[in-house]
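My main concern about presentation is that the manuscript never shows what a single data entry looks like. The format is easy to grasp once an entry is in front of the reader. For illustration, here is how one protein appears when written out as sequence plus structure tokens:
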Amino acid sequence: MTGDEREAHVSESEVEIAADPAEVWQAIATESGVAAWFFPADIEPGEGGTVRLHRGPFAPDASAVVTAWEPPHRLAYEERGEAPAPTIATEFLVEARERGTCVVRVVSGIHADGEGWDHLAEEAGAGWLMSLRLLRAYVTRFAGLPSARVDLSVPVSAPNEERVRVTTALKDALGLTGLSEGDEFRTPEGAPALKGTVEHLGPYFLLLRATAPAPALFAISSFPMDGVRLSVNVTGRVYGSGATAVAERELPRWRDWLTSR
């Protein structure tokens, strides 16, 4: 994946999506598609091009060099770092399957010498699995629609080992306790107003597909975004012609609610 000769610490994550590779390519390799489920990005197409990832408020922005551009099946880029900073390589592989589905796999490699990188690679793999579930929901439900962001990260005064407990508390506060994937939900009074369907309930990751107050996806996790400190993170994407106005209204509501907790 990279010419960096330092030790590679690699993780792989994958999901199956009810779409063809061309639809997935639009979501992973175009600026409007990437912004609708992941970080906003400036993308210069083609091998040797530049990808600028705008990762706030979760992490600093990053620049990467495209190392593979093979539409619609393979996209790879590297965030190159001089030692002791690591080189981070990311590769998307999209493979068509029967009945109009495809498997999307992300191979993430941290190239660095020394101790502690295997743990960070595992965390990166878990983070990519969360992101791929968001990609799947976007491609199958909202592909091509205008989108706006409701993104925030709130530090938690608890060690990383407590993230399951933190997520369980979030489930309860959002009225999700006792529900399963596919169930309808409505958040209780006092929480940010959402109504829709549960897409995923995991030990430290929740994915909600909303119909009100607007078509939207909300991914809520207790996860160390920088690999070290635990935080509660909201990746919200509102879709449709009025998405920007709804997102601007909902962002401070989510921030005030999480901060107060």
